[in-house]
Amino acid sequence: MKNLNRDGVEGVRLKVSRTSNMGMRSNFYGLIFVLSVIGAILFVFTEFGGYTTPPYYQYSVNLESSFSNPDLIAYAPLFILATCFFLLNMFLPLKELNIIKTSFPGNSAKLGLYSSLGILAISAVGGIAFEVILSDSGARDWWLGSGFYAGIIGGILLPLLYYFIMKSPKQPT
Description:
Number of strands: 3
CATH architecture: Up-down Bundle
Number of domains: 1
CATH topology: Butyryl-CoA Dehydrogenase, subunit A, domain 3
Helix content: over 70%
Radius of gyration: 22 Å
């Protein structure tokens, strides 16, 4: 009788650990989706940075201004690429949660990890270039905006979540 109870308890523990592992991966993918949506919205619709030139003209650097201001056209490919990486990170969790069917590769966590590191690299390079260019331009004041910080924070948090997903064992289907 004692063996029977112990086996029953172990069976329940095994089921609980599989369920919690599945729930943990689902939670990570849910967080990745939410962070990617917020990051994409902030990166596209808010300013990456801004600056003031004498006599008090204020300019904003974002996706829209990179197309309308010829001085900022060099930022357009960076904005487009980072936005594509955010969109990729929005669709990968939906694929892994079986919400949509796509033809992405089987190891989408690795693809997501690399694309989120790309977000971090693009945001960091864009921010450094922004600071270097404006420090020599004669601008009175400049700042980095929420689009920059969305890229940096998203570029740090998303790879961590993908790392946790890759380290958690995948349950059998």
